[in-house]
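FORM 7B - TANDEM STRUCTURE REPORT

SECTION 1: FIRST PROTEIN
SEQUENCE AND TOKENS:
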Amino acid sequence: MGTTTPPRTLAEALRARGDESLAGLLRARPDLLSPVPNDITQLATRAGTRASVVRALEHLDRFALQTAEALAVAPDPAPYGTLLALLTGDGEGDGAGRDDSGAAITAALPGALANLREQALVWGEEERLHLVRTARELLAPSPQHASPTGLGPTVSEATAGMSPGRLQEILTAAGLPATHDPVSAVASLTGLFTDRTRMADLLDTAPVEALSVLDRLVWGPPYGEVTPNPTPPVQWLRDRGLLLPVSTRTVVLPREAALHLRAGRAHRVPEPVPPALAPAAERDPQAVDRAAAGQAHTALSTIEELLKLWNNGGPAILRAGGLSVRELKRVASALDVSEAIAAFWVELAYAAGLLAPDGETDERYAATPAYDDWIELPAQDRWTHLAAAWLAATRTAGLVGGQDAKGRALSALGPELDRSAAPQVRHRVLALFSSLPPGTAPDPQTLLARLRWERPLRSGASGAAPAPGDTSDLRSRIALWTVNEAELLGITGRGALSSQARALLEQGPDEAAARLAPLIPEPLDHVLLQADLTAVAPGPLERPLAEMLSVLADIESKGGATVYRFTPGSVRRALDAGQAASDLHAFLATHSRTPVPQPLSYLIDDVARRHGHLRIGAASAYVRCDDEAVLNEILADKRSATLRLRRLAPTVLAAQTDPGSLLEGLREMGYAPAAESAEGDVLITRAGARRTPPRTAPAPVPEGPPVPDATLLTAAVRAIRAGDSAARAVHKDSEDTAAAGSLPRTTSAETLATVQAAAMTGSAVWVGYVNADGAASQRVIAPVKVEGGFVTAYDHTADEVRTYPLHRITGVAELADDATP
């Protein structure tokens, strides 16, 4: 095809493109590569399939989509000037003086059209623009539905099937010359509606009420219901064809009449320029970084606290998968956060590979071995690990508590929380944050408006702009969740993007960790003991100190400083873990910057003195004590009735319950029993470290096929070009060669002779080949060697050297002398 010949089909338009342009199409629409098309014709066919076109339309911005919608209601093919007029209007009537965006539309239209061309949704020269047929079917109006522009069908479409007598009545009422030819009648009525002067004269004679009816229909939907006896204004419009019947009770405003009333515009409000991102507040960038770093430290502490809760084995997994509502409430209570925020932390730990099911018969959640490696990393590296996992995760914690399409509740860690759009939305939201000056927090409403402009079809099938504040679509909800989650994680601080997060997005985790490190406070090796049995940690503590203190005391409050409270139960917990009273006194004296208060020393000694006085072991369960009076006191206590105790010996009681329940029951009664082994030794209960087998983090669910890299694109373009050359190669006619488009057929002897001759002369031949799976194909090969029943040849179709069994070649034909493979 000559370079000056206009393309007649999409395939010809794609064939005329350069390799870089074809690679751009495959990059924009990666679904076209699954699998790699055999040739350009197959690529064009695949690009026109409904599923592929719908996916391409969903990735258009609002103005590119409005351009495609305008082409859908324009004649096919449409000149560039017609398209521009549909977007800007004709400057008369309703459009005069109201639309000052004409210059912006004129400037933006070439870019939008280039975008549509690149994605193979539009092809042809500027004076013959074609919207691909599938896109036209999706976006153009029909007698059954209106287009996204709100326009109805044309006069020709709306009058299809109308009787010639009815057409004559309409022409007469509209003051048009009568004709008995339906085609001429339709053309005459169309000419009236597209003639601004005559149409204006006709509307000048319309009743005021009729104009009100048109005002309600002009911007869509263009359909209305009528009664068997319509009102005079409606009857006036019907008589003159301004309302045409669709059914016995439905009428439609024809497209040509609506365009006149709209002053030629396909859209009420064209949006050639994306909405500006308005700042909500401007803050000191250093204050933003410090606030974000503080929240990052809190995030790390929260993840550690969460996994410590499940150190001995977490909650059971529901039969349908996920965490029960009751367990989520327990986590929220333990972390002192709302259930929605607790779900976020649980999902983040899971996405980062720190938490997983243990795979046991009674399956439960537990920390993974990766958690032990993560906990040893510097704080800044632990944060970048969490932030990177959050950015890439398709798990969407904001859905927890909602319902799926079947009305079933969505639970934390459940199987239905993956949303493939989540990573793209998160990255885009943070990119918009990054586009503002450092320290600037964006206004959420303008942020949502910008996202909807960029992907309007994700907000609704028509692409119509939602009402302000509407967050019903999934992308808007993910965007709002992203803003909140970024603040929780320390990506943002006081509503603005931090410099460490900006480095993570633009330069990678190493640079982000380097930016964050100076902002995280150094861990402390001391606490401040107080006389009210509390200890104050004025900052983050070193890990051994924090772990020991969490066993010896209960956390009472968290914040800039953490307050620990010592209680008889917490001291007993430390003694159960194998610590002696002397060890606890020495630990407190070493790590306190204030003297150890006397009440705390008394508390430790008192609990230690009573600790282990009672011993509980497994018979079914028993209690033994050298002091008979203590056992008598227990038996006399009404609270012990549920333990079903009976005396076996003066110093031994038996219980019809397990040792754990007996131990807990006596502790609730105020005793300090100790568990013992079968040999009579005290059992030491240390903080557990139950771990799952090695687990990998959950893989994100991709949104459609992955974007191909440059190597794959180059190879795909070469394969498509080579296949196209082979498919279009001209071969010499022969009696034994099948009709065009089918495989060549020759005998085995003829095949062998022809390929041997081609190998000797170095020429290319056209062959039919059937592979081991029975798939037939046509190939252009240049034989190099023929021996042992195989032919080794350069395959122009695959652009590589291959070896083919001769018995799988159906036939061979010589190429025409002027054919170029």
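SECTION 2: SECOND PROTEIN
SEQUENCE AND TOKENS:
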Amino acid sequence: MIAGSPLPRAVRLPRFRHLSTRLSVLYTALFAAALIVVAVVGQILILNHAKQSVRAELATSGSVYDRIWALRARELASSGDVLARDFGFRSAVASGDRATIASAVANLRERADVPNAFVVDQSGEVIGDGPNDLRSIVSGLPTSLTGDRADATVMTSDGAYRVLASPILAPVKIGSVVFAVPLDAKEIATLQRLSAIPLTATILHRGPAGHWISSDARVPATPALDTMIAEGVSDTTPTTIDLPDGRVFALVKRLKGRNGAPEAVLLLSYPQAKALASYRTLQLGIALAGVLGLIVVLIGSRRLAESITRPITVLDAAAKALKEGGSIQVAVAGSDEIGRLAESFNLMSAGIAEREHRITHLAFHDLLTGLPNRTYFRQQLDADLTRAAKMRRKVIVLCLDLDGFKGVNDTLGHPVGDSLLHCIGGILATLAVDGLVARLGGDEFAIILTDRDDADRPRALAQLILDKLRLPMSVDGHQIGCGASIGIAVSPGDGDDPDTLLKNADLALYRAKRDGRGVFRFFEPALDAAARKRRQLELDLREALRTGQFRLNFQPIFDLKADRIGGFEALLRWQHPERGNVPPIDFIPVAEETGLIVAIGEWVMLEACRQAVNWPGHVRVAVNVSPLQFRSSGFSNVVFQALSNSGLAPQRLEVEITESVFLEDEGGVVALLHRLRAMGVRIALDDFGTGYSSLSYLRSFPFDKIKIDKSFVDTVAQDASSAAIVRAILDLADALHMETTAEGVEDNEQLARLRGQGCGSIQGYLFSRPIEAEMVADMITERMITAA
């Protein structure tokens, strides 16, 4: 509904029934002497209200024009800013590429639906089609606008134009995008249609003699009009003036020109005679009423105005203000129906304001800590970066993640974890009083600092936070030590938009965690390159799994006691279609971090069993299982399925694990090992001797085999301590009735020492490097022939 238009009929039908009783008593007392006079008074009140409505409609129409242009200006400014921020366009402006600029301006003109759009460079050259005198004005517009104004109304030989300029920054200003909207008959007609009364809208400009006139000569030079415009008394408040066509209600909107002075004005007028035409008969009634009736009517109208018109007008104005988003209270006088209505209105207004405040707070703040949330943080960071770019300052983002927070939740419960987060939020807000502290989610916090000529502030704040959080905190009766890691990114070098800056701070945070946690790190470009490389590697891994780029190589395990090949260890290889052979050390960590190792490990298990079923019955296949794959639900089902599908005897499958599988839920790991043993699958403990708990794991579960780590084998022939450790492992395995395999055997001296100490089998380059699956059968056959 247009502001100022009549309320819907359904809204105006209800009456105040109890108030009508009071009016009935008043009218009864006056009925005998002044019935006609009372009726005339009512008409006079209506007539006065009609005059006020005309004036109010003129004022509303003036406000409508301002709002229409403000909305249009925001749309055009947004369109101009989109083009002005385009890197290619800024490059074209900076290099003077007229063809590219003209094409972009033409596209912008069609997209913004404006008849005229231009680009003005710093030298005043105008690119874009339009009237010559308009182009001449546009040429100097960006430098002629005063203050921080971006728009103005100018006059040309073709008429008035509203022009708006948007700067092109790279990062300094290199030009402007300028729109010119004609204030023609179409615009005027639109404004006239929005009015509830048939008012007349006219654009005035200064004539040759300096008087304000209209282009169509409908409004000639009038001293009263010149005075009204010069004094500015009617910019917001309608007044009455005499024009050649008679006396009119008029409102003048002075449209600011380039230097602030108006070059054109908008005249809204409505003939007074037309407004009062329907009330001529009432004027005749007033003349016939008589002095007595006039006195009675004055008394009655005064009481009526005081009891009804004034409070209703106040309530009407308050309701409009409430509709427009304001918070308003009306004064309550009396205890009648209108007084109670005013009280109800005040309660409603207070309730709406409270709910809006609560909703706004919930939308932009974290419920747990009361800190700004990710949405508010993102908006504030965007605003700070925009302001910093103009002032040539820096914006610093610190991303903070708690170390070991999951352990707090798992051991003490989520309520204690929530209390810890609330406590840490308060600590951060206290330490970073010069910045904005936000909780982005989970145990992740972020801080925005704006550069205040203190280059060491980010470093000092980060260290202060780390030192503070290292101290134990009392939370719900628990003493909790919770450290943190921090990543820092600084604009514009590390990013000039919120997403890039926050992403780079996250990369620095990831680097801090990889460097041991409890430290802070600044962003470095190499981190971004590494992250992109890792992301590409992750995508390639998914594609490799989908398209079958993986293959298995097998390294033989030589049985020293039987003097034959006793088994093969399956080794995963990746043949990338572009990068060739990718070393496992490059892609296995990424597969473990992303969880892809579970699916890849399942494929390895199935493929290894499928290949091994064709080997001689005494030859086993060993499959190394990662801790993540081992702890995944359904691992025993994967083993069962691999054996079932291939037909491989369970005792020919050897699952190799490292002691790291025991680090979480040792009881569950041991139970799973027993389930595998129940199937008939052999279990080997890989890299034995490198972990501090290796011996305790031998007590937890009777392994079938111990694999001696290569680090001991490398120096077993030269270093007495290494030889002693290997002998101890072999004696221990013999006492526990476990087989042994020495890994990484590369020369005969190592072989002789291991054979002499009673090692059961060896694996290493001395015997064979890993071979393709197709070569396994030939190697077994060749070895059998050689042994024979």
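SECTION 3: OBSERVATIONS ON SECOND PROTEIN
The mean pLDDT is 79.
DSSP finds 27 helices and 27 strands in the chain.

SECTION 4: SIGNATURE
Preparer initials: ____
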